[in-house]
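Repro:
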Amino acid sequence: MLIVKQDTYRIKMVTQLQKARENEITKEMQYVTKQENIEVTTLRKNIAEGLVVIPANINHKNLKPVGIGYGLTTKVNANIGTSPIKSNLETELEKLDTAIKAGADTIMDLSLGGDLNKIRKRIIENSPIPVGTVPIYQAVVELGNSEDLTLDKYLEVFEKHAKDGVDFVTVHAGVTRETLHLLEGRLMPTVSRGGTFLVNWMKKHNKQSFLYEHFSNILDIAKKYDVTISLGDGLRPGCLEDATDEAQIHELRVLGKLAERCREKEVQVMIEGPGHIPLNEIEKNIKLEKEICNNAPFYVLGPLPTDIAAGYDHVACAIGGALAGMYGADFLCYVTPKEHISLPDVKDVREGVIVTKIAAHIADIAKGNRTSKQQDKYMSEARSRLDWQAMANYVLDTKTFQELVRAECENNPEISKGCSMCGKYCTEKRK
């Protein structure tokens, strides 16, 4: 009888968190340790404590797992997806392929137009990296407006995403009635689409958010498929004027309590963060999240340290992201040159991933990651030899590097003796 009970119990263990707490080493954990060059027992312990997540839905069959959190390299997410104005599945699949080739660690499908179910399924089928979604988007699209949202409709969409194999989902359960009055003094009350939907719904119905009140229902579904909950920052600041204000911090405290409920339910959880934050407030924001949310993995959008970089927001994002990563952010969500302007195209996706990967790498060096530091050393050794072929093996964007070198070779046949910047005065020229 004891054996039967134990077997029955083990069959019900689905999530990486459950298994880690039972001292089980999963194939996903083994894969991540090889990628990160760390001890599997250390990884298992960190997952058990909620310091690391491995978003890996049991129905995502072609997945190459990724670890996010303490002691691991800083990860990069790329957002893709259709809009109500532009909707082309093949374009989104091309964006997916481009993001993966550029080095994205995860992808999020934020589609709002076209056949949402078909788009999501095709993205999951073609994605070897974890896929994230925001279920409230589809719920609102199907209903026509946010004011008609219901718990049943939301859960219906959420489970549909989970069944399809979505690995992590953004849930804006921290947006509550208690924060509504805190938005009144803001320059930009809400810039999060999900946060805006919920604020509008609560104002219309004069009720508490159904995501907050019925969070346990969401966790039941998440646990069933091992969907990692990404607690969304629905009240993130959309401009520097609103950075680190009372509304943002109030929501963060709610997220800390919700994260604890996730862990109690043995559901993996990470926390989403700002947003538009000046450089001098980034360290404070990272430390607040780690303190309030018991060191849960922190997933930041940027952060953007200026509001006037439109057209170059990906560069501003990289600057803020590098600093955030250095102070302990675990997961950087890219922005593209089209942020705040329009739906990004394939080229924008590639540029967004590359600059954010640079930021993540800079952060990993600052964190003391040995593999990252070694890569820079190898690059320097190749440069000291003017070994262009070897350099191509270590740069983050091999494609662009090789294109530039090829063009240089065509114009300067003696490139091996130094590039056209210094010519015969090259400091690394070898006789």
